[in-house]
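User: Teach me something about this protein's shape.
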Amino acid sequence: MKNTILSVIFLLGIIFTTKAQNLQFGLKGGVNFASLNGDISDDFKNRTAFHVGMLVEMNVSTNLAIQPELLYSSKGATDKEYDESLKVNYICLPVMVKYFLNDGLSIQGGPQIGVLLSAVSEVDGGNEDFKDDLKKTDLGLNFGLGYNLTNNLNIGMRYNIGLSNINNVEGLGEVNTSTLQISLGYLF
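Assistant: First, the predicted structure itself:
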């Protein structure tokens, strides 16, 4: 865990010490289609939520950019039969490598670390905190597509696969997150 955080800090340090003309700062937000997978009830399905945050895009070459982001991302799952919603919220730090296929279209991929902020189960109007039942970090891998509509406005679609078991309750098995994100971003 410490090595991951130090690696991310090192990468961000490299990015921020480069020439300013290679950097573009931006904001992004959009919709999440999130689920919890693994040893969890099959009754739980996707939860529609949101993400919002900021990013820095550094152009390494004409076709290559590195884009670290800092996002608030709401994940979880829902069970329609019992009217239950598991709301799991993270601060996520993805570091995306973007390869531009042409002037606007890019393929993207990279690691992500999420830090758990809250976890609440909502059933029949009541709330129950289950943050202690989950591990504090969620490591994942992202891959997706992006398209620059203009020099400043872009859209993207990304899939995040949770690689770590977030379950912290002994004997309940493995639980992973997965999230499909559709985003709109603006670069300054």
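Now, about its shape. The chain has a mean pLDDT of 90. Helices lie at 2-16. If you'd like, I can walk through any region in more detail.
User: That's plenty for now, thanks!
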